């Protein structure tokens, strides 16, 4: 049986509201770190104009592939192995990239590689949507996020809740600018960056 995340069931509705608007003009979406595949199944079913490409680390791919085989709609592609450290990513150019709850799990070098990979994979125009907890001006937005950060670092010192400003700097270096920062339930955010249409 594929793995199951209660958090995905709770947050998929609010995230879908944001994606419905942010990805209205997109056709192809690359998801990084698809996990259980619950988001991919839900969003692909609700947004049939999109071709949704889930990805995962190769060691986590089997249960994801199983959920998508059992529950996926025709616009949900079979998942592929993708580690953000790979260069280049094994994908064709896409209109949008989505990732949930990944940047606080990855070490900082992986976060840098995430934005480098997004910069290379996104076409013009392009959209990047990232869901998760973030710090602002060096401060957590809640005590629960501060506690979560401590728990993450005790488990893996390279992980941790990321500073929005540092992520925005990496996004800018990849040719993206912040379009929206949505408050989400449970002290999470959905950050939306865009790359304008046009030349180089
Ligand atoms: C907390 S889980 C989130 C899964 C799912 N997106 C969700 O919201 O439930 C973090 C995910 O990031 C993936 N991940 C960690 N390091 C990665 C890397 N270097 N490249 C790609 N994915 C990575 C993990 O395999 C895991 O599925």
Q: Biggest sheet: strands, sense, closure?
A: 6 strands, mixed
Which structural class best describes the helix and strand composition? alpha/beta
- From the N-terminal CA to the C-terminal CA, the straight-line distance is 45 Å
Overall domain count: 1
Q: Average pLDDT, to the nearest integer?
A: 97
Order of strands, widest sheet: 2-1-5-6-10-9
Helix content: 25-40%
Query: What is the number of helices?
Result: 6
CATH class: Alpha Beta
Order of helices and strands: HEHEEHEEHEEHEHEE
Q: How is this structure best described in words?
A:
By secondary structure, this protein is α/β, with parallel strands linked by helices. The chain has one domain (6-195): Rossmann fold, CATH 3.40.50.150. Helix content is 37%, strand content 25%. The chain has six helices and ten strands. The chain has helices spanning 6-22, 38-46, 61-71, 108-121, 143-155, 164-173; strands at residues 28-32, 51-53, 55-56, 80-81, 94-100, 122-132, 134-135, 162-163, 177-184, 188-195. The longest helix has 17 residues, at 6-22. The mean pLDDT is 97. It binds S-adenosylmethionine. S-adenosylmethionine binds next to loops. S-adenosylmethionine is lined by residues 5, 8, 32-35, 39, 56-57, 60, 82-85, 100-102, 105-106, 110.
């Amino acid at each position: 049986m594929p793995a199951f995340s209660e958090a995905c069931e709770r947050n998929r509705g609010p995230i879908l509201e944001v994606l419905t608007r942010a990805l209205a003009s997109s056709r192809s979406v690359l998801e990084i770190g698809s996990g259980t595949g619950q988001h991919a199944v839900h969003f692909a079913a609700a947004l049939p104009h999109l071709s949704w490409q889930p990805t995962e680390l190769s060691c986590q791919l089997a249960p994801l592939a199983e959920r998508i085989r059992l529950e996926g709609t025709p616009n949900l592609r079979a998942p592929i192995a993708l580690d953000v450290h790979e260069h280049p990513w094994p994908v064709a150019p896409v209109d949008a990239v989505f990732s949930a709850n990944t940047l606080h799990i990855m070490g900082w070098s992986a976060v840098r590689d995430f934005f480098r990979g997004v910069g290379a994979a996104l076409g013009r125009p392009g959209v990047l949507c990232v869901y998760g907890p973030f710090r602002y001006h060096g401060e957590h937005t809640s005590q629960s996020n501060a506690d979560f950060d401590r728990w993450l670092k005790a488990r893996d010192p390279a992980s941790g809740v990321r500073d929005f400003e540092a992520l925005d700097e990496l996004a800018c270096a990849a040719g993206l600018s912040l379009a929206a920062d949505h408050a989400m339930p449970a002290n999470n955010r959905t950050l939306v960056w865009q790359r304008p249409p046009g030349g180089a």
